[in-house]
Automatic annotation (TrEMBL):
UniProt protein name: Ribosomal-protein-alanine acetyltransferase
Keyword Isomerase recorded: no
Originating species: Methanococcus aeolicus (strain ATCC BAA-1280 / DSM 17508 / OCM 812 / Nankai-3)
Taxonomic placement: Archaea, Methanobacteriati, Methanobacteriota, Methanomada group, Methanococci
NCBIfam families membership: rimI
PANTHER family: N-TERMINAL ACETYLTRANSFERASE (PTHR23091), N-TERMINAL AMINO-ACID N(ALPHA)-ACETYLTRANSFERASE NATA (PTHR23091:SF4)
Length: 164
């Protein structure tokens, strides 16, 4: 999208719009209170994709840093703007930010095991399956823990994820 601008969120109204997209994108969405708490703990991990013409937020990505790794908490695009590259631009932006500014060793995320479209999206961007996480979601569904190594770190250290 030519009219797209990626920026950090900077006001409560942005977080309200992020929450709207979250609710419309996922059957089991994060409540506003959790998004607000995550924002207060690491505001630099919140980026939005905004239409420059009308300042309308069309997508978002939320990340944290845990145990030296970046962690993608959530990413979504407004249904009217899907399949236009917004998610890829958001993911690339947060990866660049976390890898370069914070020098995280890896970026990790969890995705529903049966969400093949999302898994393909991440495979195309250099993520690989690390392990199956049984009963990860509230409904008892399994997740795949996916990882992308920092391309700026040249070593063969094992990937250690201490969060679980």
């Amino acid at each position: 999208m030519d009219n797209l601008q990626i920026r950090k969120i900077n006001k409560k109204e942005d977080l309200i719009r992020v929450s709207e997209i979250e609710k419309n994108s996922f059957e089991y969405s994060y409540p506003f209170s959790l998004l607000y708490s995550l924002y207060n703990s690491f505001p630099n991990g919140f980026m939005v994709a905004e239409n420059k013409k009308n300042s309308y937020i069309v997508g978002y990505i939320i990340a944290t840093i845990e145990w030296g790794n970046g962690h993608i908490v959530s990413i979504a695009t407004d249904s009217k703007y899907r399949n236009r590259g917004v998610g890829g631009i958001l993911l690339g932006s947060i990866e660049n930010y976390l890898f370069k500014k914070y020098n995280v060793k890896n970026i990790i995320l969890e995705v529903r095991f049966d969400n093949t479209n999302a898994r393909k999206f991440y495979y195309k961007r250099g993520y690989f399956d690390k392990r199956l996480v049984k009963d990860y979601y509230d409904d008892g569904s399994d997740a795949i823990l996916m990882v992308k190594k920092n391309p700026n770190i040249v070593n063969n250290d094992p990937i250690i994820v201490n969060m679980w």
